[in-house]
Amino acid sequence: MWGALLGATTGAGLLLVLARLRVVRRPQLAARVLPYVRDLPQGVGPGAARSTGAGTEPVAVAVFGPVLRSLARSIERVLGGSASVRRRLHRAGLDRTVHEFRIEQVQWGLVAFAVAAAWGLLRTLGDPGAVVSSALVCALAFVAGVLGRDHHLSEQVHTRERRILAEFPTVAELLALAVAAGESPVGALDRVVSRSGGELSADLARVLAEVRTGEPVGAAFDTLAASSGLPLVSRFAQGIATAVERGTPLADVLHAQAADVREAGRRELIESAARREVLMMVPVVFLVLPVTILFAFWPGVVGLDLTTP
């Protein structure tokens, strides 16, 4: 009986493995269709947004969804500024809606509230009269968590924009070289996007997708100029749009803009060094100078000790 049971279990396991291998080896629909629609903008229309967002919610949102959404709506009514949040989400390159960002703020606030509540519970066990102050600390922790997520979003925007500024001269030079070699603006854009990676390349890939779906090149770059929070990138997009519409030499425009970005970065580095001149003197005054004085005078002090009767 035991042998028959073990044999049946082994056979059933092998059948399950073979059935799963057949399913795994079968090409998925996304793998067959994705190479043909890769350049199309994602999330066009409400149906696409629902299909792409389905199944990607965190566990906490799936379980406590109604409560979190209610708190998110309350935070939206209190804080407001949905236009600013939407603009910063776009500048940070985050594929989220304002409501999803408010839910993240609630989650950050609840985590801070839980940490403060645990600390307040331990404090209350030793001092029962500290209940009111612990409750106040918990409320302040929730507010700090909510505002901390907003501050983190601003930091994400600044980090991404610094990366874009670091990538911009190289991308502009590559575009200029491709155009000077005889490529059309769209062909040069396709060549640079396919051979580079980064935040600016992702923005240019979206521009290329819009152009391939029928939007004029000038209008697509005007959209990039309007949505970008960096003046240099806005001037870059406006310059390309103007060059395409009026037929001006595009390679010269791109070379000039790359040189302007490098010069701006050099000026910013010099200004940063001038602002931090006092801080740069701290290691010299408090570290290098005392060591130098010690090496200069210590042999003399030892010699005096040795010769003193």
UniProtKB/TrEMBL annotation:
Annotated keywords: Cell membrane, Membrane, Transmembrane, Transmembrane helix
Transmembrane segments: 6-23, 106-122, 128-148, 278-298
Gene Ontology CC terms: plasma membrane
Natural source organism: Nocardioides dokdonensis FR1436
Main location group: membrane
Signal peptide from the UniProt entry: none
Residue ranges of domain Type II secretion system protein GspF in the record: 173-295
Protein's name according to its UniProt entry: Bacterial type II secretion system protein F domain protein
Superkingdom of origin: Bacteria
Subcellular location: Cell membrane
Membrane topology value: Multi-pass membrane protein
Pfam families xref list: T2SSF
